[in-house]
Amino acid sequence: MILVTGGAGFIGSNFVLDWIEATGEPVLNLDALTYAGNLRNLASLQGDPRHVFVQGDICDRPLLDRLFAEHRPRAVLHFAAESHVDRSIHGPGAFMRTNVEGTFTLLEAARQHWSALPADKKAAFRFHHVSTDEVYGSLAPDAPAFTETHAYEPNSPYSASKAASDHLVRAWHHTYGLPVVTSNCSNNYGPYHFPEKLIPLLIVNALAGKPLPVYGDGRQVRDWLYVGDHCSAIRAVLAKGRLGETYNIGGWNEQANIDIVHTVCKLLDELRPDPAGPYKRLITFVADRPGHDRRYAIDARKIERELGWRPAETFASGIRKTVQWYLANADWVADVQSGGYRDWMAQNYATRAPGA
Ligand code: NAD
Ligand code: DAU
């Protein structure tokens, strides 16, 4: 059995589904079910004994100790985090608590469990920390992509909290010998992506005839990877990654935000034409994100060379699948657009009126 934290969120739930299908190995899924966690993502596993769900907080040490003692997982896959940069600007406290204190608490519980294991199980144990390319900061337009040795230069409260968690994981390996691996991935997209993030927000707003908010000049660059490819990369790192190493994960797919917006609009024009006219009429330039990183790009040669991993999707195939998934899952979208979602939309976009 493996312990997955944050397995009801976007990437975590995709990972749990992918893992059980690919390996059949049971998952103990610990998730606090914050606004970003949704058990509907895991509906297809209802009644499946290979999925054990526990609602709880990674900062809760007694709970972690109980779960380790009872289920004796052979590995920890740590996804749980506060993950939205804009929310970290409005309220950084939750990011420090979950991403820093939560990772510390989980490391300590894992260390206690691991220390008492017999030698063979001790050697086989893994703590896989799921992190982000944002810890490296922002790239100039012509700078080479981030390698694993790029300096840490986090710029937002979110990326600073993730950088802190990466450092804790590194230190627990160097000081205590905990068998860790860390992966730093670029922007994901795909099914179950919460519609506060750019791609799902574009899809759900377009379908509702609402403005498509583009921060600043829309020329910021992100490196997009289909979520299923992130899951296969994590499986590869867990199985074959060298202890104490970090692996960058990305699909060599840099795109300016405004180009992403046009791609989504064109796909919707094809798949769900709007009698009112092309969706690009809804594009609205709004006030920029404070401290907005200009460009991220991942150099994925290490994971390709050492572990033989390659993404299966191109951006064209992945974004088409994604738009089709949102069109086929209007009930999921309606479900996550609860009162809390509407409050966040009002808070984040009220101060971003066009020209603000
Ligand atoms: P998400 O916000 O969709 O999901 C986070 C999950 O963690 C939710 O289910 C939430 O309920 C749970 N959670 C939050 N606080 C918790 C706590 N204190 N205890 C237990 N559970 C808690 O995030 P995501 O986009 O799926 O990201 C997952 C991980 O991948 C994060 O660590 C993130 O930093 C990293 N990452 C994300 C991306 C991306 O593009 N989304 C890219 C690279 C890395
Ligand atoms: O790079 C990996 C990171 O990608 C992850 O670590 C984060 O958890 C994840 O949220 C994501 O961060 P970004 O800030 O890049 O993602 P987001 O979808 O919020 O924004 C993508 C780009 O689109 C970014 O340049 C900001 C811009 N944007 C975003 C929103 C929500 C807009 O122009 N308009 C919007 O309304």
Overview of this structure, please?
The chain has 13 helices and 12 strands. The protein is α/β, with parallel strands linked by helices and 356 residues long. The chain has a 7-stranded parallel beta sheet with strand order 3-2-1-4-5-6-10, sandwiched between helices. It has a 3-stranded mixed beta sheet with strand order 7-9-11. Strands 8-12 form a two-stranded parallel sheet. Helix 2 (61-71) packs parallel to helix 4 and helix 9 (257-271) packs across helix 11 (315-328). The termini are far apart. Nicotinamide-adenine-dinucleotide binds at residues 5-6, 8-12, 31-34, 36-37, 57-59, 79-83, 98, 102, 130, 132, 162, 185, 187-188, 194. Nicotinamide-adenine-dinucleotide binds next to helix 1, helix 4, strand 5 and strand 7.
Bound molecules: nicotinamide-adenine-dinucleotide, 2'deoxy-thymidine-5'-diphospho-alpha-D-glucose
Spatial arrangement of strands, main beta sheet: 3-2-1-4-5-6-10
Assembly type of the chains comes to single chain
Q: Separation of termini?
A: 51 Å
- Whole-number mean pLDDT: 97
Low-confidence stretches: none
* Major β-sheet profile: 7 strands, parallel
User: How large a portion of the residues is in β-strands, by DSSP E?
Assistant: 15-25%
Q: Which term fits the overall shape?
A: globular
Helix content: 40-55%
Q: Write down the secondary-structure element order.
A: EHEEHEHHHEHEEHEEHEEHEHHHH
